[in-house]
Amino acid sequence: MPHQKTILVTGGAGFVGSNFVLRWVREGGSAVNLDLQTIAGNPANLASLADHPRHLLIRGDICDAELVSHLLRKHRPIAIVHCAAETHVDRSILAPEEFIRTNIQGTFTLLDQAKAYWASLEESARGTFRFLHVSTDEVYGSLGTDQPAFSEISPYAPNSPYAASKAASDHLVRAYHHTYGLPTLTTHCSNNYGPFQFPEKLIPLMILHVLEGKSLPVYGDGLNIRDWLYVEDHCSAICAVLAHGRPGETYNIGNGSEHTNLAVVSAICDLLDELRPGKTIGSHKKLMQFVPDRPGHDRRYAIDTTKIQKELNWQPMIPFHEGLRRTVEWYLENSAWIENVRSGAYRDWICLNYGERAARK
Ligand code: NAD
Ligand code: TYD
User: Fold this and answer.
1) How do strand 216-219 and strand 55-59 relate by DSSP bridges?
2) Of the listed 86, 90, 137, 298, which one is catalytic?
3) pTM
4) Which of 8, 10, 16, 190 to mutate to test the pocket of ligand 1 (most atoms within 8 A of CB)?
5) N or C: fewer beta carbons within 10 Å in the chain?
6) Residue with CA nearest ligand 1 atom 10
7) Please, what are the domains in the chain?
């Protein structure tokens, strides 16, 4: 499908990737979407693009150099937007191997194939080609309450196997720019939420648990802080960086919307009290239960977005409470999607992560 604006997206059946692909195609672009369809990768996220002439979903592995090379030479993308990753911190604690394989080996494979493809392009196409690596704020480690937010020059201090694997991939991206001149861009975004997020992450997990009348497992004292960004704002930032970011640069993305986990879970309960009142009297907050903490749990993330605001004129559009309402409404309206993701593998994860926590209480 050669098209002026064809890009290769990796991980485009996942949460951020599918929201990005839907936006890209809606805005007239074409996307070749390479996704292994792991537990978090779900073709149902792309159902509205079924048979769309400008979207091609390929089930495959970013560690497969031959496949990546074939896709690049066949579809001749103007850019790669690299979202594919293993992404859940708790899973990375219980089973880190796949994080090393996909996040490090996979990013290396993609970079190496991108370099060969980029070198084969004509000079003008070489000048405009971009490799955009979607990374995370978690590479910077954890902040105390009074410390300034992470900026692009904050030192790396990854604490979880997930964060360490993303940090390693960032360094490979940096090296491919510095050594070979590959026109790379790296983004470091804070916690996202919104439609199509797999319910292993805090916000959708809590929504589903309320709907099922199950307890709401709050790790530790519930006072860990995250800066929550609506996924559409993350996607608009990726578009801004892709269009106008300077090769070799990194850009932090966030919302200045710091909330404790307790505040987030309470806000979800308030919304569901209003939109889906329980059969028994009282707030869903009574389902909240403190459970043993995540090992090495980062206390606080906060993002300084001065660079992307000043350089690329980007800013988030959706305030947290509006985005959270939209998200809760989306999950209420999409029960078929929820049923589809609640597979045996999902139930096994809930038993593994939370069964063990309950046992340790
Ligand atoms: P996700 O887990 O929902 O999706 C990841 C996707 O990658 C899935 O579709 C999965 O099938 C695919 N994938 C995994 N291994 C693969 C492989 N070997 N080959 C091809 N595809 C593979 O994750 P997400 O939340 O959409 O995150 C996407 C990217 O954004 C990640 O790189 C993550 O680090 C970054 N990010 C996410 C957030 C967030 O809050 N969700 C915040 C900052 C950065
Ligand atoms: P998560 O959504 O896993 O994102 P991350 O760890 O990448 O920030 O978790 C967000 C916060 O919510 C984090 O502080 C851990 C906490 N949390 C819980 O308290 N209970 C849960 O069941 C989950 C999944 C997360």
Assistant:
1) unpaired
2) 137
3) 0.97
4) 16
5) C
6) 41
7) 6-198+229-259+298-320 (3.40.50.720)
